[in-house]
Amino acid sequence: MTNNPEPLRVAVLASGSGSLLQAILNAQDNSYVVVGVFADKPCEAIDRARRHTPRPPIVQVVDFSDFGQARRPQWNNLLADSVAASSPDVVVSAGFMRILGEEFLDRFGGRTINTHPALLPKFPGAHAVRDALAAGAKVTGTTVHYVDAGVDTGPVIEQREVPVHPGDDESTLHERIKTVEREMIVDVLRDFRSLGTRARPGG
Fold this sequence. Notes:
The chain is an alpha/beta fold. It has 2 domains: 1-109, 3-Layer(aba) Sandwich (Rossmann fold), CATH 3.40.50.170; 114-202, Formyl transferase, N-terminal domain (Rossmann fold, 3-Layer(aba) Sandwich), CATH 3.40.50.170. It is 35% helix and 22% strand. It has helices at 19-26, 44-51, 72-84, 102-108, 128-134, 170-190, 192-199, and strands at 8-14, 32-39, 58-61, 90-93, 112-116, 139-146, 156-163. Strands 3-2-1-4-5-6-7 form a 7-stranded mixed sheet, with helices on both faces. Strand 1, helix 1 (19-26) and strand 2 form a beta-alpha-beta unit. Helix 1 (19-26) packs parallel to helix 6. The two termini are 29 Å apart. The mean pLDDT is 94. This is Phosphoribosylglycinamide formyltransferase. GO terms for molecular function: phosphoribosylglycinamide formyltransferase activity. The active site is at residue 116. It catalyses: N(1)-(5-phospho-beta-D-ribosyl)glycinamide + (6R)-10-formyltetrahydrofolate = N(2)-formyl-N(1)-(5-phospho-beta-D-ribosyl)glycinamide + (6S)-5,6,7,8-tetrahydrofolate + H(+).
């Protein structure tokens, strides 16, 4: 008799248009299910999540502007409380434009992952595509990695290469990276119980 595990429960953090979130939502199957979508501000990603059928996730905006830098720890705690209510196995930072603090990582460290548009450890930070072009890179790509207290420094789960074409600008290169990024995050989530364990911090 085959022992079929329950689908991986996925919470997604988003801040922008939600195109990566949409790919994750659309690809749900018996391997994973999106149980929650959380944003730091009202955004299109939240609208996408609210429209999604037939399995709508918990959807919540934990608005950073209600707290600000001085109260960042309180915001991190509230975000962690909100995510915890969806009982996720893994948290995906999908275009989430806030650095997660220790208050969040104390609860979800080792099971929070991020996508980054470069082959880490090359070109960390918010301008990875621009930095790759400025450095004259012939090949860049995208990485799924664990989130830790640093900036794009957590253990790598998977990477895929994207060639830099002659005449590429930041926009054209980033669009090709995003196409690969969407495919990769879905593949990682579908096989997370083996891929994630291989790279998990402390594992």
